Amino acid sequence: MRLMKAFSTYCAVGLTALALTACGQSSSDSESSGDSADASESSQTWQFGLEEIEGSVQYEYAKAFKERIEEKSGGDITVELLPYGKWGSSYSALYDAIQNGSIHLGFGSGFLGGTVPESQLMSLNFIMSPDELKTAKVLNSDAFLQSEPWQQAFKERGLVPLAELPEGYQVWTANKAIRTPEDMKNLHIRVMDNSLLRATYRAYGAAPITIAYGELYSALQQGQADANIQPVFAHEEMGFYEVQDYMIFAKQSQFVANLIGNLDWYEGLSDEQRTMIKETTSELVQVGHDIQTKFNEERLKTIEENGDIEIIRLSEEEQAKFEEMAKSVRQTFVNDVGERGKGALDILLKEFGKDASATEANADSGQNGDAMSEDAGSEQMSSDEGADAEQEAGAETESESM
Ligand code: 6CS
User: If you measure from the C-alpha of residue 191 to the centroid of ligand 1, how many angstroms do you get, rounded to a whole number?
Assistant: First the structure.
């Protein structure tokens, strides 16, 4: 119920805003910042697109970014936040808008795999540190974020990666208890449109399906999906927990959003402005960690107080069974996205002290994601095309009506 209300409001506002402003550019903004990503004027408006609604982790991070940039620029720069729904109807609309410069920067997470296949690295299970702050620091370190493979993966698609925002552990919910991979057998668990996530949950024995974020509440309610994966704050703010019986903490991965900018816009900024962004994103590593920790802790309490959902925390032995099954998916990632993806993965494995020799470069795979596996939501395919396998299995996919 709450979801439907939140979304109808956002969509109504979004459609009006879109009609009036052509993807969020107000008439006063266009006077100050030009048609698209022109940064040459002293007074500019940077539009910042979010995949999540107001009150989310992405929103609080973006608010902190806005405050800092506006202060550091002495008021020359205004950052305009465009939460979920304000910029259009599907995530690909947001990513397209950032690629074409009509939105200057924004977040791209699991669904971004269709635009930047290498970004699916963030979806691999059992790669990052159990110390969440350490994970945030490593993902934002020069060793990873500024590395050639990571930078090039985005630059080739007209984007630049500016920061990484871990939003907390991805927590499963389901209508049955899950303690072992056997419990996942044939489970219709909803994943974002991302071939690595599908491969991961198939490796666990489940039958993953892809459904748009905005359609997920009713899909869970009506039994089109039996299970879901989200950080705790999202289970709460979208009301998903209301229509699920169990919440399972397996510590298999965090939800990570990539903060991306339009490449031409970024390259058109002054050195001072680029330094301002770098300083701000560095400051926000700790701030982002504090936001996600607070939101996830507080909202777990709300879920425990308001719902009758049963919480299950897997033991290390139980987690290890899933970890073992997830290992082969590293090679799937390398096979799908090629040498550059392997380069980025190897950096993370090294930084997190894991064995980097487990994957081999696949000579047949493309350097830029040409060799996506058969069900991948690749950059050449629409989300709908990318999820043919799920459609065959009777699942729904992200649609333009989201
Ligand atoms: O599951 C999803 O589709 C969405 N979940 C969150 C927490 N943020 C955006 C993302 O696309």
Answer: 9
Residue type, 372: M
The structure's pTM equals 0.85
Spell out the domain ranges in the chain. 11-166+256-297
Q: How open is the CA angle 43-273-136, to the nearest 5 degrees?
A: 130
The CA 234 to ligand 1 mean position distance, Å, reads 8
* Segment (H or E) for 130: none
The residue written with tokens 């359609």 in the block is 215
Closest C-alpha to 178, from 197, 151, 206: 206
* Edge-to-edge order in the sheet of strand 254-262: 77-82, 44-49, 105-108, 254-262, 159-169
Which residues does ligand 1 sit against, CB inside 6 Å?
Answer: 51-52, 109-111, 192, 213, 230-231, 234, 255
Using the mean position of ligand 1's atoms as its centre, give its distance from the Cα of residue 258 in Å.
Answer: 12
Q: 11-166+256-297: which CATH architecture?
A: 3-Layer(aba) Sandwich (3.40)
pLDDT tens digit string along 296-352? Answer: 999 999 999 997 999 999 999 999 999 999 999 999 999 999 999 999 999 999 999
Amino acid at 237: E
